[in-house]
Design a protein that fits this description.
five-stranded mixed β-sheet, alpha/beta, 7 strands, 4 helices, two-stranded antiparallel ribbon, globular
């Protein structure tokens, strides 16, 4: 039987297709290569609606990033397409739910593999004080915090608004 850790679907710009298990190993290797640095492990998601002759569909991209403060990062991403175009509020909730789902699988294993004092863990939510999503900040931050994770919003949620957005 295949565990969630063995599921493929994420992509590494350096190593191609990877499983959650391989992501954890690559994050651990990156952290171990410079154990004196501080790291952030970040999960963020973004979405984009695309219209075609056959109708609208929505791409959701989730990114997992390990950032060595001041010295670069590595990331992994996954795209999934649904055959409908949800309204903005539903898309933002789905982005956050996808980030939390990835965190539920990978964070417990990262916590076993990497010492807690070497990294911070963050969920980056693609909402901010400007624009149509500003009314959603409190509820989405509450949702992420309620699951035991630290939430970052724009302009600090670059894992969602830059890394994941790059692949939508």
């Amino acid at each position: 039987m295949t565990s969630d850790l063995d599921k493929n679907g994420f992509y590494s710009p350096t190593n191609g297709s990877v499983t959650f298990r391989k992501i954890v190993e690559q994050i651990a290797e990156f952290v171990d290569s410079d154990s004196k640095s501080l790291y952030s492990v970040i999960i963020g998601s973004d979405s984009q609606i695309k219209h075609s002759k056959t109708g609208a569909e929505c791409d959701f991209v989730t990114a997992i990033v390990v950032h060595r403060h001041g010295y670069g990062a590595r990331y992994f991403w996954k795209r999934e397409t649904i055959k409908k175009a949800p309204v903005l509020r539903d898309r933002i909730y789905e982005e956050t739910a996808r980030s939390l789902s990835a965190a539920a699988i990978i964070v417990p294993v990262i916590r076993e593999r990497i010492e807690k004092d070497k990294y911070n863990f963050e969920i980056h939510v693609d909402v901010g004080p400007n624009g149509k999503t500003r009314e959603m900040i409190k509820e989405l931050v509450g949702m992420v915090n309620g699951m035991g994770y630290n939430a970052k919003t724009k302009p600090y949620s670059w894992g969602a608004s830059s890394v994941a957005d790059k692949h939508t």
